[in-house]
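Cross-posted from the bioinformatics board.
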Amino acid sequence: MPKNMNVEPLYPDETTTSKASPAIGFLNILLVVIWWAGWAFMAFFTLVSLYTVLAFLGVEAVQKSFEVTTPLMALISSISVVVVAAVFLIIVKQLRQICHTLVTGDPFVPENANRLQVIWIAAAAGELLRLCSTFIISWVSKTSEGAAIQATDLRVYVWFMVLALIILAEVFREGARMRQDAKLTV
Amino acid sequence: MTIRVNLDRVLLERRMSLTELSDRIGITLANLSILKTGKARAVRFSTLSALCRELNCQPADILVYEPEEGEQANGADRAAE
């Protein structure tokens, strides 16, 4: 029997650094671009919201630009877009952090399960907010123009994605637990 | 955890340091420390075999089962039955 048994090391050798694949590098760059685009989008619609607030408060110079829609509807629309942009940024932030753990070489950590949980909660909250704003806009347009209330469009695929994310988060949690077990196996 | 690791006692008896043992069996010092401090969740047979070979001992010298209070009472009840 050889003196030095080849026992599998518990942790990867500290000198070896994980090399991220080109796909991960590309994803990282893509997420950075999406992150800043999301901020630009949010900043733009925040300004639009402020503009509509002025119109809603009765500033005449601003009110003139609202011919097609009422200031109230524009305000509700722009606020809901800002909220959706915020939800989008929360999701992108979590994805960036998950991607970072992928680059460092250990994505199966409990934090990533929590991040996936945050993503599905944010996606569900965003969709609920969208449904609410659609309903309010329909209701306001009915009261102002006498039009019929628009049917609320329930996006089944969004809820299906939320379900998929819930399952993925739980799979990740179990995976992280198993990884921790493997780490503590000598 | 009800399994106690007596690695430090065995090492003391053999007058061997953890670093020396680590070199001899080819397991990193960090891993051996995890085992010694009782933080390990599982031990491979290959690791146990290497430890017994280098320390010239039996697995029972390194690992000791210590029942917890509840477990001890249950075991005693079953023995009485």
